[in-house]
Design goal:
This protein has helices at 132-142, 158-162, 178-186, 198-206, 231-238, 304-316, 408-411, 415-441; strands at residues 24-31, 42-50, 56-64, 67-76, 81-88, 96-104, 113-118, 125-129, 152-155, 166-169, 190-194, 211-213, 223-226, 254-256, 262-267, 272-279, 282-287, 324-326, 339-341, 346-349, 360-364, 371-375. The chain is of the alpha+beta class. Among the domains are: 24-119 and 323-381, Immunoglobulins (Immunoglobulin-like); 167-316, Class I glutamine amidotransferase (GATase) domain (Rossmann fold, 3-Layer(aba) Sandwich), CATH 3.40.50.880. It is extended and about 120 Å long.
């Protein structure tokens, strides 16, 4: 029975309020240049993101080892993404642990810090055949200055081939280097042949079953098709770069390729522009032009330097172990004494390896001391909040429960036992009745 409210009763209706939620995170901290020498400037690209509808103010700090090397006040607008580049200059040519922290007041603390590692790497060696004027732009791509280079450039000789990681052939191979080049590729390494003019690399390509013939015409060519699934071009599709199709080629070679050769790019006249041929354990990349200004304007396009970097990575860097992983990843430690947590200096993994369960930097306990960085997955930074205009009726199920007939045993868990008791009692009564009837008859 509902009782009416009297005039002297006060009441207040309170509606639930959605609690405030703030989160800003360091979503990435990645080096963009190799650590090849002490006191060399290394590019560190940082990305901050504000996941909520209110501004986030704080201080961005970068540490290398135990030393703070950068600090700056930052403010992120609502739902804003901010990118920052910091230059690091390690004093020692040795593994170093680093961290990026955005010191701000929010509700998720672990993603405010992101860890990274600097591990020394050996510069790959590239042996180049061809005069300096032919290879000028290639040299400039890998060695923009004496202090900042991503590869060592060597002249192509029999002695240098043996200690190189990649060959770039712009002229025919000298006779005394033929066997060395063939062994170099067959044993699992890579070579790039640039065939802008028939006379320069004709004999070299013939050794690999590739014939050159004059191009169909002397008109300027462009790329018409590119295989963006191939590792050399894959990253360009991820960032939606279309500048390849603006490159002009003034001198090209017509490649007659053998069976089993993969075509990676095609000119507008239908001729192969970039191709790859697998030779035993190694591979040969053929480009039907050169980077000279007389042959193409590729060297002045924004895609040139990234292309050379991806080409080098594909030919030399394939199979390198990544040192950045998410929580739950695995650090292989075979052949070492285990893994050390650099926060606590404690041994956390044996020679079998270690799966980090918290963010931080971890170091292999061996002579090299490679450092691995473990960070929270980016998905954990996204607040699971409903938008302001969310239709809550969507949360009400509109499905109807199907009604099924249920057996008596299913209705009562003791149904079968109950019927057994009645049956047993009936048998006892029947047996008793027979005994009484027999005694009366006697």
């Amino acid at each position: 029975m509902d009782l009416p409210l009297s005039p002297s009763v006060d009441f207040q209706v309170e509606f639930p309020q959605k609690p405030g939620f703030r989160n800003a995170a360091v979503t990435s901290a990645e080096t963009a240049s190799p650590f090849t020498a002490s006191n060399k400037k290394i590019i560190l690209n940082i990305t901050l993101k504000n996941f909520t509808d209110s501004p986030a103010k704080g201080v961005l700090r970068v540490a290398l080892g135990q030393k703070n090397v950068f600090s700056e006040d930052m403010e992120l607008s609502a739902n804003d993404t901010l990118k920052k580049t910091v230059f690091l200059t390690p004093e020692k040519f040795a593994p170093a642990d680093g961290s990026v922290e955005f010191d701000t007041d929010d509700d998720i603390i672990p993603d405010n810090t992101r860890y990274f590692a600097l591990n020394p790497v050996k510069l790959p060696r590239i042996a180049i055949s061809g005069k300096d004027n032919l290879s000028y732009f290639i040299r400039l791509a890998f060695q923009p200055s004496a202090a900042n280079k991503s590869a060592e450039i060597l002249p192509l000789t029999a002695e240098n081939i043996a200690k190189s990681d990649l060959l770039i052939l712009m002229n025919d191979i000298p006779d005394d280097a033929i066997s060395s080049v063939m062994n170099f590729i067959e044993e699992g390494k890579s070579a790039v042949v640039m065939a802008g003019e028939k006379a320069r690399a004709n004999k070299t390509l013939l050794r690999f079953g590739i014939k050159l013939s004059p191009p169909r015409n002397n008109e300027t060519e462009h790329f018409s098709e590119i295989n963006f699934e191939h590792p050399v071009f894959k990253k360009f599709s991820e960032v939606k770069v279309g500048g390849f199709f603006e490159i002009a080629f003034f001198k090209t070679a017509k490649l007659n390729l053998p069976e089993g050769c993969d075509i990676l790019a095609v000119f507008s006249n239908g001729d192969p522009a970039v191709a790859e041929l697998k030779i035993k354990k190694g591979k040969l990349i053929v480009i039907a032009s050169t980077f000279e200004r007389e042959s193409s304007d590729w060297a002045i396009h924004p895609t040139f330097l990234p292309f050379m970097r991806e080409l080098l990575n594909y030919c030399v860097g394939a199979g390198e172990e990544k040192t950045s992983l998410h929580i739950g990843g695995f650090i292989r430690a075979k052949g070492t004494e285990g893994v050390i947590d650099l926060k606590t200096s404690a041994l956390v993994g044996d020679g079998n390896g270690f799966a980090p369960t918290s963010p931080g930097n971890y170091q292999l306990r061996d002579h090299a001391g490679k450092i691995f960085s473990a960070n929270t997955p980016p998905e954990e930074s996204e607040p699971l909040l409903l938008p302001e205009n969310f239709d809550f009726l969507k949360l009400i199920s509109t499905e109807k429960n199907s009604e099924k007939e249920m057996s008596p045993a299913a209705i009562h868990p003791y149904g079968k036992t109950f019927w057994r008791i009645i049956l047993a009692a009936s048998m006892i009564l029947l047996f008793s009745e027979l005994l009484i009837s027999n005694r009366t008859a006697l």
